[in-house]
Amino acid sequence: MTTAAFSCQTDLGMLSRDALRARQTRLLNEHLRHCRQQSPFYRKLLAGLPNRELALEDLAQLPTTSKQDLSLHNQDFIAANGQPVADLCFTSGTTGAPCQIAYSRRDLDRLAYNDAVGFLAAGFQPGQRILLTCTLDRCFIAGLAYYRGVVAMGATAIRNGLNTIESHAQIIGALRPEGIVGVPSFLARLGASLPEQGVDASSVKKIVCIGEPIRRQNMSLTPLGQKLEALWPEAAHSTYASSEIATSFTECRERQGGHPPADLALVEILSPDGRVLPPGEIGEVTVTPLQVEATPLLRFRTGDISFLVPGPCPCGRATPRIGPILGRQAQMLKIRGTTIFPNAFFSVLETIPGVVDYYLEVTGTCLADDVTIFAALADGAPVTAKEITEKLYSRTRIHVQTNLVPPEEARQRIYGHSRKPVRFFDRRKG
Ligand SMILES: [Zn+2]
């Protein structure tokens, strides 16, 4: 592996296409050598393949890695090469046992560089104050990566973490941050509460939104994105990341899809049968993170569904852009021949006045799914179950049953079992 330090002074996305290809080709081959030499899992997986220098196009010929592989052979992925593991994080594994992702010291520097480049592209500036409203501990890596990114780009981190609305409001009033990093639904609630608390949040010019999409498939803002836009015009930028890929894709100032840092990841969109799909076509986000030491991955199928935004970005970067996450592969619904994700229903439910909460249940066999929407209404809400079904049909062209449930019952179902709200309940067989 190269030992050169990461520097966010130059954005390599701005290299010419040819220069970028040359650099990525070199990094891909270094990555493959590292996988073969240091990771028992890849040594075995790649044993039968010719050991030669590859061109970028050859990537599509290499085997993919699934969450299942990572779960079943977790320790065999670790390629520490005798180096101390600097940080361990856990993700939920497909076998039920948590999956370990190890990071070396250099991996943490790589994460810092990754987020620094992304934040600078979004418009955070050195010297600004950035409020972090996400968790920095609990064996998650994202918060730590954002923190390291803020510091690496020369800004000031305000680590208020997973704190109350009141606490964040107080910090915004007192410290006047120029930027915020957080979960968009939380930030919309925070923003809406600020006037009541007498807090002026006009210092905030940029927001990096994590964990939830703020755009639809056509790249327009979702109702949640619109709420943020009304509170902080032109501030919200989306970012996509996961602990496994150890890379984040943040929207540049154009706000039309997230760029992977040029020297940190190769991205493909794959069809269910493993074909590489062209820009614009929807499939599974598959990432080969480059320059990773401790837990290297090759063509990792994330389970997230999205697409590459067609055409070059007006910002001038030669890197691709990933669109909003439309859903999880496991949440894909097949209803009378049409493929749709729960988010398509949720973004309509968000806009119906009087609907205070909602969730979706699917039964059936995975080939013919039966979807029921459960909606909770505010007192005196001007809408019926039949009207909700009609509104959902007019936007998705799919007819689903809507049942009304008391708000308390919905809350219990959605927030009762997990730290994150759960709105999708899968009761399919097979
Ligand atoms: Zn761009």
Task: Write the SSE topology.
Elements: H1 17-38, H2 40-45, H3 67-72, H4 74-77, E1 87-92, E2 98-103, H5 105-122, E3 129-132, H6 142-152, E4 156-159, H7 165-175, E5 179-182, H8 184-193, E6 206-209, H9 223-231, E7 236-242, E8 247-251, E9 258-259, E10 265-270, E11 283-289, E12 300-306, E13 327-328, E14 333-335, E15 338-340, H10 342-349, E16 355-364, E17 369-377, H11 385-396, E18 401-404, H12 407-415, E19 424-426
Parallel strand pairs: 3-4, 3-5, 5-6, 6-7, 16-19, 17-18
Antiparallel strand pairs: 1-2, 7-8, 8-9, 10-11, 11-12, 12-13, 14-15, 16-17
Helix pairs in contact: 5-6, 7-8, 8-9, 10-11
The structure holds zinc ion.
CATH topology of the largest domain: Rossmann fold
The CATH architecture of the largest domain can be named as 3-Layer(aba) Sandwich
Helix content: 25-40%
Work out the strand percent. 15-25%
How many domains? 2
| Overall average residue pLDDT | 93
Write down how many β-strands occur, each being a DSSP E stretch of 2 or more residues.
Answer: 19
Structural Rg: 22 Å
Strand order of the largest sheet: 4-3-5-6-7-8-9
Runs in which pLDDT lies below 50 for 5 or more consecutive residues are none
The distinct ligands, each listed once, are:
zinc ion
So, the CATH homologous superfamily of the largest domain?
ANL, N-terminal domain
Principal-axis shape equals globular
Note the total helix count.
12
Distance between the termini: 44 Å
Largest sheet: 7 strands, mixed
Look at the helices and sheets and give the structural class.
alpha/beta
**What is the CATH domain class of the largest domain?**
Alpha Beta
